[in-house]
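Need tokens for this chain, all 312 residues.
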Amino acid sequence: MIETRRMRRLLLVLATALLPAASAGCLEPPPKSALGYTADAKRAYDEAMEEFNSHNWLQAQQLFREVKKKYSYSRYARLAELRIADADFEQEKYADAVRAYKQFVHDHRSDVQEVTYARARIAEAQYKEISESFLLPASEERDQATTLEAYKEMRAFLHDFPEARESAKICALIEDVTVKLVKHELYVARFYLARDNYDAAVARAQYALRNYATEPPCHRQPPSAQTGAPAAASAANGESDIAPPRKIVDDVPDTTFGLAPEALLLLGETYLKMHRWPDARAAFNAILQRYAESAYVVQANNFLAFMRAQGV
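Here are the structure tokens for all 312 residues:
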């Protein structure tokens, strides 16, 4: 009887000792190799890409988030972050896309190729946010805050990544944005000119010439005031930071971009109404000498003929 009790106690002790090990063996799978971890991450990423390529954006984003969560130490987690932002971009959720791209840039600064891509997409998304609806006034008549933000982002990208494969596309976009900004400055200048506010008209035309209507943006450095807003505000108010008028004309290079002849004509017309004859003549002559193929040559010649007839 005693022997039987001892045997039972011994079996109970052995069972208690072996139970945790057996449980652990059932619950914990054997550790995977790094190769297996990467292969699983790629497989999950590829499955998400199938949904992405089928334009099933919400399903794709859900799968990409799972990749980020389950395989956070693989490169596919970083790629999944970009694809989540891309899905927002494709759904025209540009503000959400910009936030996601900026977060990626902040978190992965050392991943040069991916950061370059994200920065280019930020610029492109901000360009897309410039509305061109026919229900709205012409773009030059509207506030340019969104346009200026896109312009600054594109400038910064081209400065930081001049040789990137995305640069050609950003160059094409920034030229369109620059035209919008020049047209706005000239629209405001004409507004002031029509109300005999000549100093303000001159300031806006000069600002357009100095900062936008010169060389193609891809071929020169950004304006000295990189933020754009302070200089624009001071120009609008006619403050004293504007360069001397004929120096502005002289500084416009022979090879120019955009609407420089139109800006020069408006500048000359304003000087003419201010009776600043030498400055007006310099602006009109700049059109004849540097933009002989421009449609504004005829008007410049007419103004010069008028000045000669008036003896000024």
